[in-house]
């Protein structure tokens, strides 16, 4: 066991999906994985391992915000030898180019968090996605859209803003960020990308737009927990198509 994850060595797969919401983790495990088993309930931050198309996958809740995610990701990398993590989160759209339920595959994550400023003594570090996972997620999204035809959620690749505040202290900054290409706001990806770089592992964040900062449209908590399956299937395809080592269910 690690400090915050109640799993034995080998209980967690090399590839992990990571929603903020532990109940979304449970829904993903019950909906998408075969033979899913819960390996931790410490602090209610549920984690499961099962198989998807015969390959081992884990799903681990991160909690909300970068400090919480960093606890789980540090322990996954150092105590459980996890190789790749794809965050499957929700986000708020900052621009009318995006609609509620659209997907954002985050190529990089701006942040107002002090975590990297402390680590880099004032230098601005640029947290970016793993290119292979990003490429494979974009390809999986395009293939699904081509098979399905018109009507599914639009998929955007670009920058997001990982904020320490759900209730923005300076909401007027959103328009300036949009001018510089930022599409949406969430609360964890910058720490995930930074820790993956630090540990030489792979990370990506895919988020579904749950709220629209411009129009005020929003989804319910039940929808955020149990209906964002398109991003989950794209994440599973990207994580396992890229051939993460040790994912074989055999
Ligand atoms: O739905 P999750 O994955 O938790 O992500 C978003 O939702 C939470 C805020 O409601 C934050 O964690 C934010 O990043
Ligand atoms: O507006 C939103 C929606 C989801 N997550 C956030 O951090 N902000």
Automatic annotation (TrEMBL):
PROSITE patterns linked to this entry: PNP_UDP_1
UniProt EC number: 2.4.2.3
Domain Nucleoside phosphorylase span(s) in chain numbering: 15-233
UniProt entry tagged with the keyword Membrane: no
Annotated Pfam families: PNP_UDP_1
Keyword tags: Glycosyltransferase, Transferase
MF GO annotations: purine-nucleoside phosphorylase activity; uridine phosphorylase activity
Domain of life: Bacteria
Keyword Glycosyltransferase found: yes
Gene3D superfamilies registered for this protein in UniProt: Nucleoside phosphorylase domain
Single GO biological process annotation from the record: purine nucleoside catabolic process
Catalyses which reaction(s): uridine + phosphate = alpha-D-ribose 1-phosphate + uracil
Annotated transmembrane regions: none
Gene Ontology CC terms: cytosol
Family stated for the protein in its record: Belongs to the PNP/UDP phosphorylase family.
UniProt-recorded name of the protein: Uridine phosphorylase
């Amino acid at each position: 066991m690690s400090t915050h994850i109640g799993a034995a060595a080998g209980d967690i797969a090399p590839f992990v999906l990571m929603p903020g919401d532990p109940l979304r983790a449970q829904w993903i495990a019950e909906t998408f994985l075969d033979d899913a088993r819960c390996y931790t309930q410490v602090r209610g931050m549920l984690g499961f391992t099962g198989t998807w198309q015969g390959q081992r996958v884990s799903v681990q809740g991160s909690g909300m915000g970068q400090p919480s995610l960093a606890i789980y990701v540090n322990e996954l990398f150092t105590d459980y030898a996890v190789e790749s993590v794809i965050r499957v989160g929700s986000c708020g759209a900052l621009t009318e180019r995006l609609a509620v339920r659209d997907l954002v595959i985050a190529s990089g994550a701006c942040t107002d968090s002090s975590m990297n400023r402390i680590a880099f003594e004032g230098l601005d570090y640029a947290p970016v996605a793993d290119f292979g996972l990003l490429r494979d997620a974009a390809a999986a999204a395009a293939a699904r859209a081509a098979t399905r035809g018109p009507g599914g959620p639009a998929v955007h690749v670009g920058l997001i803003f990982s904020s320490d505040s759900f209730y923005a202290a300076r909401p007027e900054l959103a328009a300036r960020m949009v001018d510089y290409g930022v599409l949406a706001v969430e609360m964890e990806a910058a720490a995930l990308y930074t820790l993956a770089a630090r540990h030489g592992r792979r990370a990506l964040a895919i988020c579904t737009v749950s709220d629209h900062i411009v129009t005020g449209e929003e989804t319910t908590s039940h929808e955020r927990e149990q209906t964002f399956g398109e991003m989950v299937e794209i994440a599973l395809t990207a994580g396992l198509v890229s051939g993460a080592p040790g994912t074989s269910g055999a």
